[in-house]
Amino acid sequence: MIAGVAEDEEKWLSAGITGLQQNAFYMHRALDSNNLKDALKYSAQMLSELRTSRLSPHKYYELYMRAFDELRKLEMFFKEETNRGCSIVELYELVQHAGNILPRLYLLCTVGSVYIRSKEAPAKDVLKDLIEMCRGIQHPVRGLFLRSYLSQVSRDKLPDIGSEYEGDADTAMDAVEFVLQNFTEMNKLWVRMQHQGPARDKEKREKERSELRDLVGKNLHVLSQIEGVDLDMYRETVLPRVLEQVVNCKDEIAQYYLMDCVIQVFPDEYHLQTLETLLGACPQLQPSVDIKTVLAGLMERLSNYAASSAEVLPTFFQVEAFAKLNIAIGKVIEAQDDMPIYGAVTLYASLLTFTLHVHPDRLDYVDQILGACVKKLSGKGKLDDSKATKQIVALLSAPLEKYKDIDTALKLSNYPHVMEYLDNGTNKEMSNVIIQSIMKNRTCISTAEKVEALFELIKGLIKDIDENLQDELDEEDFKEEQNSVARLIQMLYTDDTEEMMKIIHTVRKHILTGGPKRLPFTVPPFAFSALKLVRRLQSQNENVSGEEVAATPKDIFQILMQTIEALSSVPVPELALRLYLQCAEAANDSDLEPVAYEFFTQAYILYEEEISDSKAQVTSIHLIIGTLQRMHVFGVENKDTLTHKATGYSSKLLKKPDQCRAVYACSHLFWLDEHNDMKDGERVMLCLKRALRIANAAQQMANATRGSSGSVVLFIEILNKYLYFYEKGVSQITIDLIQSLIELVKQEMSGENTTPEPATDAFFASTLRYIQFQKDKGGVVAEKYKPIKV
Question: Where would one find the signal peptide in this protein (predicted)?
Fold first, then answer.
């Protein structure tokens, strides 16, 4: 059916173009022979093709443009005729003899253009006559195109100030009156299209009207270009007349388009000075008009105008732009009960952007807008409209982008209330935006009160708002979110140690509500932030000894002990063990032996009861040995207890090579250069001998199971330990022991069952080169190494 109509339309258009071209041909021939009578005859016949009612506006436009091109040529002919002495007044009367009204009016407009140009009559009189004559065509499409033609031929001949057609003192008003009349009549014709034809074709008619809207809108553009339209005339005549027509037409499409046109074509300064009039029309529009987009466009223009120059801001204050816009938005939302949440939030977001440009210092205005938004959202629950959600994110992001300081956002009492209406996913996104803003601008949150407000704001990332949804989040996204929170915790800082202690208590309170899944991400940064404070307190105590201090390292270590214990619910024993050891080292620096011992005890309990994986055990025992080696706070008894435990754990590892390496690592616990009371050569020797026995056992086991001797790399590693302690002056390590170990390695490497290993060979060769280097060095060291044969 639709295809058939389209085909018919093509045929009608083709027939119309053919008829038009044929008559245009004869018209040209008449023009060439200066035959005015025939030229008028064929031009009238040519224009009769425009009388059709069969074509859609789109197809009619094609036909009209062909006729328009021919009329331009005819106009040139009329101009030449007047130059040759033909009376323009007679010509103006002559064309009115055309038989049909539509061709007659097109010809009249064409001659009228030449008439005005000739200046034989005032432009305003000719234009008034033409505008009245055009009332004769009331068919919407034909009438619109006719008046569009009138507007086109007259736009450069208006009696404007400074124009060559300028008239008396009211000349600008004459030009405005002509354009306004044409605009009013065209709008009436355009609106009438909506009410012609059956209801089932409503969608088609709306599409056709949309295609024709620019014909009407061009009148407003012409109005904006008239030089004589100053602010006073715009305020008193132009805007009221235009708005009267917009409101009275009671047509949804026309009202939306024309309001948008008014905002776009007239200057920003005019809008600012006539804001009350313009906004007063908004509640009078049809409820179905998309007024939110119109007002958003107005506020965007005014925002850009305010941002363009600081000089215009006083005008905004003078006219009380914010108050007027705020009241207008309230009235529009109140008048349109069925306005979707998305529409209301869009208006508030636009008003907020405007406010941030014009009144950046008025936080009360910003909070007032957020409060109005909360009021509109109250009782709605979590939003499930993606458009509304997107606008709320824009609303909440605007203050962050403007002030680049979360402190400012935290002062807005309604800010968190707006966030509560976001669904859980978007709440997290917004929380992330807040954290990214803090990190990007390196904002320092320096009071416990602000930290409390901030963590309440980003609670979507700190804890599960809805436990049912916790498994839906992608693992990678979850890690990224929690890493952001971890970075945020590191940025909470103040020089005031008492306030910093309060911040630590606040952070701890919030992160412990995060559940087992979040703790591995949030506890480590919290612990290191607390340890940073411990070190600051330690340095303060050294400087101001004897004074009463509100926060002490001991208090912080108690908090840390309780917090790390919370990780047992996850469980992540390896992470907890690392944190216990970090705290033990910090307690060591603070000379708190009982505290350090307690942290080591907890680490040992974790190792014994929770860490069962062999690889994790190896890593953990080396961490324990490394930390224990750096401890100087322990007395003999505590040191012996912890060292004994460590060596015991080392010898109980699953794999012999791991046992061997852990045991020889323990040798460092008995010889510390910086502490003379921690130099026990016998126990160093004991550890190395035990390591050597384990290495031998590993070799024998490899020989028994694989039929070939295992790697000799363990012997080479032990040889390096011998050399290290020999240099340090451990008297129990003699030249003979070193020499026998070198021979053992050589023997093992040259054995029949040994598989060549380039890396091991290179390691041993490097060790021998080191011995030779020390021998060649000269001095005391060379004397020590001289007896060793390589």
Answer: none
